[in-house]
Amino acid sequence: MKFPRTTLILILLALGLGTFVYCHEIKGYTQREEVKQNQQRIFTFTADDVQSLSIKTKDITLNLERSTKPEPPKWVIKSPISEPAKNAIVSYLMNLLVKGKSDKNLAIPDNQLSEFGLDNPQATIEIKLKNQQIHKLILGKLNFNNSFLYAKVESAVKNNDNFNILLLVSKDFSNAVNRDLSEWKESDKNSESQPLTELPKLTPITTPTNSKKKINTATIRGYFKIPWLCIKNLDIPLPPFLRGTLRYLQVLDTTRESFQTCSQRMSEK
């Protein structure tokens, strides 16, 4: 079956138009979104690419370096002290650097940096990668509604113009870097655990084996007196031997009380 020439031309045009729409609109849209997301990110490196961090605030200058040993800790403090770093604190900052995004990018001249707190920044983070590239993130002051921080990025490659790219970044960066030195250190578990105080030794109680212990029959009768009254009033059936024992103890208790009463009367006379 042969198609007319016009029909074949229309089919080829439809296939070509469909291919163009797929490449430009569908596949191209995905690529444009990836580029857009990368443009919004502050940095494009990953956490594994970072070799060292230098954090300079108004209080301290802290230098961190990735440990070369496979076992913990992953990070160590090089200055102002030499101690293991707390991994959770460093990971929190690293997550902001790797996944942080900028809400807006604005170009400002050098003479306007003071308006955004970037001439005297609250903190400067220097990131050195394993390939020896160096990046800097300079944190300024909060914006007008205290929702973002003004910041700018500096890299080894500087622009020839006098303009700076102003970023709006999360204010979590301020919480991540403005810490006391003690918060960066890994807590010493050995120093925190206090030794247990020695318990006093118990004196063993020795019971003589040959001595015969006297049993206070009055005490035993007192133990049985109340149960006997309860059983008597409730009319609870008991085995004959137990009921006889209770009655015998009751008689003894009554005899003891009568004997005590007579003794008191005779002593009074």
**Average pLDDT taken over every residue:** 76
Q: Uncertain spans, ≥5 residues at pLDDT below 50?
A: 34-39, 190-197, 210-215
Describe the main β-sheet briefly.
9 strands, antiparallel
Task: Give the assembly state of these chains.
Answer: single chain
Order of SSEs, N→C?
A: HEEEEHEEEEEHHHHH
Radius of gyration: 45 Å
User: How does the overall form come out from the CA principal axes?
Assistant: elongated
Question: Can you describe what's shown?
Answer:
The protein is of the alpha+beta class. The chain has two domains: 47-186, no CATH class; 217-268. Helices cover 41% and strands 22% of the residues. It has helices at 5-40, 87-99, 172-177, 181-184, 189-192, 217-234, 240-268; strands spanning 50-57, 61-66, 75-79, 83-84, 105-109, 123-129, 134-142, 148-155, 163-170. A nine-stranded antiparallel beta sheet has the order 4-3-2-1-6-7-8-9-5. A hairpin with a 3-residue loop joins strand 3 and strand 4 (83-84).
Describe the structure concisely for a colleague.
The protein is an alpha+beta fold and 269 residues long. The protein is built from 7 helices and 9 strands, in the order H-E-E-E-E-H-E-E-E-E-E-H-H-H-H-H.
List descriptors:
single chain; 269 residues; 41% helix; alpha+beta; 7 helices; 2 domains
Question: How do the helices and strands line up, and which of them pair or pack?
Answer:
Layout: H1 5-40, E1 50-57, E2 61-66, E3 75-79, E4 83-84, H2 87-99, E5 105-109, E6 123-129, E7 134-142, E8 148-155, E9 163-170, H3 172-177, H4 181-184, H5 189-192, H6 217-234, H7 240-268
Antiparallel strand pairs: 1-2, 1-6, 2-3, 3-4, 5-9, 6-7, 7-8, 8-9
Helix pairs in contact: 6-7
